[in-house]
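Handout, section B. The chain below has 189 residues.
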Amino acid sequence: MASTTYSTSFTPDSALDLLFSPDLISQEVKNAMHPDVHIRPLASTDYRRGHLRVLSVLTASPDPGEAAWVSHFQTLRALSRTYYTLVVVDKRSDQIVGVGTVFLERKFQRGISCVGHIEDIAVDSQQQGKKLGLRIIQALTYISENSGAYKTILNCSDKNIPFYEKCGFAKKENEMARYTPERAHTPKL
């Protein structure tokens, strides 16, 4: 992974190329944030702010290089009203310390509605204890509900169930998964 470069100043939202409008983030959540951090949409320059480093807390996050990362950012933004990735930035270092995503799955059921899927919640180990995970979940749930989702769902490990219950989620049914075997070729679709 590329080395991290630390900034001496915090970059305001107005100076960034964002994935979506920061106005979609609950003002209540913004007001409840720890004063040392700021919550905002993912920006096109967040590769340099350690986005992949924070995601690596969850699982393997190989570095595709900045050009591929930016290309993927542009792909997500082109799918308007679908992907909402939030980041929490440490104001002193201008580095990402928390991340999370909600994406909207369009459905024919429930009067042509949608379901919000929360994914990739991660908080840097040095920033835990500031309720950043809770605030990320609250912000993503707000976006999901205000986008018309009839439910917001997520998958988690058994050890994280108590945390998500504190966030207002309830255990329901079971997750099934089938992982694609590793292969040396690129996807066909």
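Note. The chain is about 25% helix and 20% strand. Compare this with the example in section A.
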